[in-house]
Amino acid sequence: QSALTQPASVSGSPGQSITISCTATSSDVGGYNYVSWYQQNPGKAPKLMIYEVSNRPSGVSNRFSGSKSGNTASLSISGLQAEDEADYYCSSYTTSNTWVFGGGTKLTVL
Amino acid sequence: QVQLQQSGPGLVRPSQTLSLTCAISGDSVSSNSVAWNWIRQSPSRGLEWLGRTYRRSTWYNPYVVSVESRITIDPDTSKNQFSLHLNSVTPEDTAVYYCTRGQFTAFDVWGQGTMVTVSS
């Protein structure tokens, strides 16, 4: 059982906004602001989209944003596009000096 | 532009050692501001961080508890690369293995992935 819980799937229509949640189920991740988000397309390596809760790496669209409240981090995507359809994973640094990942969320653009 | 190029066998026999190498271009394995990680992904275990190697005043190699008795990640400064060695493998170690760069407590550069099957 993952220390980070994500919904298995979310969906939205083009142009809409969606949010994917990531809830820490273990106390060793909830207090940290070291949550990151990754996008993975089939057969490809994950791609970093958000780091340290809300920071976007250079080159990532500003339609992607991150936030955190208590033990739940969130990834929001505005102006949904067909190319956003992918699997999304959250990750967090832990007090044990390790990293854990969520189980992943499949985003479907209707 | 930083790139990671993975190499190694795609089939390993049970009880043997899985060894993969990650060649770095555009950065240095000896950099004191980043870390070099191995992560694997399987349908049953999802994404799993295995461990990392990084240099500050000395070299550090933390590993995940679940494999720490079987794993070694070591840098090769002469070739600017780092390697994963996982011994006593079982079919449970079948997965896609990725090498990654760690920066800002996240993984910002990924290798292409290597599908490793443990089977006799």
Overall description:
- The complex is a heterodimer of chains A (110) and B (120).
- Chain A has one helix at 27-30; strands at 4-5, 9-12, 18-24, 35-40, 47-50, 64-69, 72-77, 86-93, 99-101, 105-109.
- Chain A is globular and about 40 Å long.
- In chain A, 36% of the residues are buried.
- Chain A is mostly beta strands and 110 residues long.
- The mean pLDDT of chain A is 92.
- With 120 residues, chain B is mostly beta strands.
- In chain B, 0% of the residues lie in helices and 55% in strands.
- In chain B, the strands form two sheets. In chain B, strands 2, 4, 5, 6, 9, 10 and 11 form a seven-stranded mixed sheet that branches.
- Chain B is globular.
- Chain A binds chain B through residues 2, 34, 36, 38, 45-48, 51-52, 55, 57, 89, 91, 93, 96-104, and chain B through 46-49, 62, 64-65, 98, 104-108, 110-113.
Observed structural traits:
A: 10 strands; B: 120 residues; mainly beta; seven-stranded mixed β-sheet; four-stranded antiparallel β-sheet; 0% helix
